[in-house]
Structures are given as C-alpha cells and as structure tokens.
Design a protein that fits this description.
- With about 300 residues, the protein is an all-alpha fold.
- The chain has twelve helices and no strands.
C-alpha cells in the first residue's frame, strides 16, 4: 500500500467514524422534545431550563476535573460564549417555552430547518463553498421535513412559532461555532467548558425559578430532567462536536434531517401522539436527501 492509499484509508475511517458519532448524537437529540414534555409535567419552563443547565454543568465539571483538562486559550472564549448562548441557554429556553403550547410534531419544524441553517451559517463563517447539488439536496430535505411537520400541526403561526424560529437561529450559530472549536479542542471539552462557563448563571436562575414556579417532581418529570441534563445537554453534544470535527459542519448538519421524524416516532411511543400515513413517505424522502448530501 502506498502512502497515498494509506492516507486515503485513514481519511475514510475518520469520515465513517465521524458519521457514526454524529448519527448517534442525532438519535439522542431526537428524544429531547419528548423529555422536555415530561419535565414540564412537574416543573415550570424556567425551572426546566436552569435545572438542566446545572445538572449538565456539574457533570461536565466533573469530567473536566477527572480528565485534568486545561483552561482553553482566551482566543477560544468567544466561540465558547456563542456555544453557551446558542446551545445551552437560547435553544433550550426558546423550545421549552414553545412546547408549553405546541406539540412535539409542530416543534419538529425548527429541527427540520436546523441542517440547512447550520450549513449556511458555517459557510458564511468560514467561506466554505458547497456544490449546487449539496444545497439542492439540503433544501429539498428541509422542505420535506417542514412540510410534514407543518401539515401535522395545521400550519398556523403562533407565539410558539416565533420561539421556534428564534431558537433555530441561535442553535445554528452554536452548532457551527462548536464544530469549528472541535478542530482545536476535543469535542467533550467544547461542550464541557461551555457548560461550566454557564454554570453560575444556571445556579442563580435555578434558585429564582424553583422559588417562583410550582414544583411537582414525579418520576416522569425527574426522568425527563435527567435525560435533558445528562444526555441532551452533555453526552449527545460531546458526540455531535466530535462528529462535526471529523466530517465537517455542513455534512454533519444534514444528518439532522432525520431528527424530526425520529422525534415523531418517540412522540408516538412515549407521548401517545398519532402519525399520519405520510410519515413513511417523508422518512424515505429525507433519507434519500441525506444520502445525496453525504456523497456531495
């Protein structure tokens, strides 16, 4: 085997591994909305958001201490701030507020738009140029997901929609900046430091929220909160940023096209929501779009 063949083989393995990590993260992400609904069964929206920040921050801090991670260089703090504001504060807060009045299927609209928005933000941020076929497949997949999710909810714009579209913007920025940071820091440190930096605000917010909002913490609410804090906010983001570092922000973001449909599956299994016959057709169309973006 020549040196070029060896390098090609290593690149292929890295891409395959990165795709697997990003795909596993998407599977974990898909449980976030159902878990949020569970948590809202016993806590107010501000309590859910701040408590998940605290739980995730404590887990991340423990991992950073155990791994003897060094404080990131100051030049990286700006990117970590964007990750914190977008993925730890903005997206959880806005989607939690939306889920008070919107169903999980309706909230899936924002997730359907995230891949295209993340890729667009990343392209503007880094100057990356994707092929026309890449953009065509990404937009087609986003259109399928949006059309499916909006049809499920009737497509009526509400205050929840405003929350969801605002969440889309801040989360796309957080994802893209985190993917760029993961080229310099290990993925788990990117989300880990962002969570630790957010911990003081989370603690203060949790004290205020728990003292202001009603608390009826049953088994379901506790399970939802634990999933949000330990998995959605930390473990899945760790895998996500590692995957993005290996295969690129644009390509990884397209894997998220499958997330709304996975969320709808969990909604049926865990929340008792009903799907229309259009779901299998939409799933096949989305998977075709993902395959095209991966090839491009």
């Amino acid at each position: 085997m020549t040196a070029q063949d060896s390098a090609t083989a290593r690149t292929s393995i890295a891409v395959s591994g990165g795709t697997l990590l990003a795909g596993l993260a998407v599977l974990m992400f898909s449980m976030t909305f159902p878990a949020t609904v569970w948590a809202l069964d016993g806590l107010g929206p501000w309590s859910v958001v701040t408590c998940r920040m605290v739980l995730a921050g404590l887990v991340a801090g423990g991992c950073l201490l155990a791994g003897r991670a060094r404080l990131p260089a100051r030049r990286l703090w700006g990117g970590l701030l964007v990750v914190s504001l977008g993925c730890i504060v903005g997206f959880p807060l806005l989607t939690t507020l939306a889920l008070r009045t919107s169903s999980t299927s309706h909230a899936a609209v924002v997730v359907g738009l995230l891949p295209a928005t993340t890729a667009a933000y990343s392209a503007l941020r880094t100057g990356t140029r994707h092929s026309p076929a890449f953009w065509a497949a990404a937009l087609a997949g986003a259109a399928v997901v949006i059309g499916f999710a909006v049809a499920q909810s009737g497509g009526r714009p509400t205050l929840g929609d405003l929350y969801l579209f605002a969440a889309l913007v801040v989360c796309a920025a957080g994802y893209a900046e985190g993917g760029l940071l993961a080229r310099t820091l290990p993925g788990w440190q990117v989300i880990g430091w962002a969570l630790v930096f957010s911990l003081p605000a989370g603690l203060a917010g949790a004290v205020w929220a728990l003292g202001t909002e009603p608390v009826h913490l049953g088994a379901k609410a506790l399970a939802g909160l634990l999933w949000l804090g330990a998995v959605s906010q930390f473990a899945s983001m760790w895998l996500w940023y590692r995957g993005m570092a290996a295969i690129g922000v644009g390509r990884a973001s397209q894997l998220q096209l499958a997330q709304p449909l996975l969320t709808l599956v969990w909604s049926v299994a865990l929340l008792g929501e009903r799907l229309t016959p259009a779901a299998p057709l939409a799933a096949v169309a989305v998977l075709v779009c993902i395959a095209v973006t991966q090839r491009r």
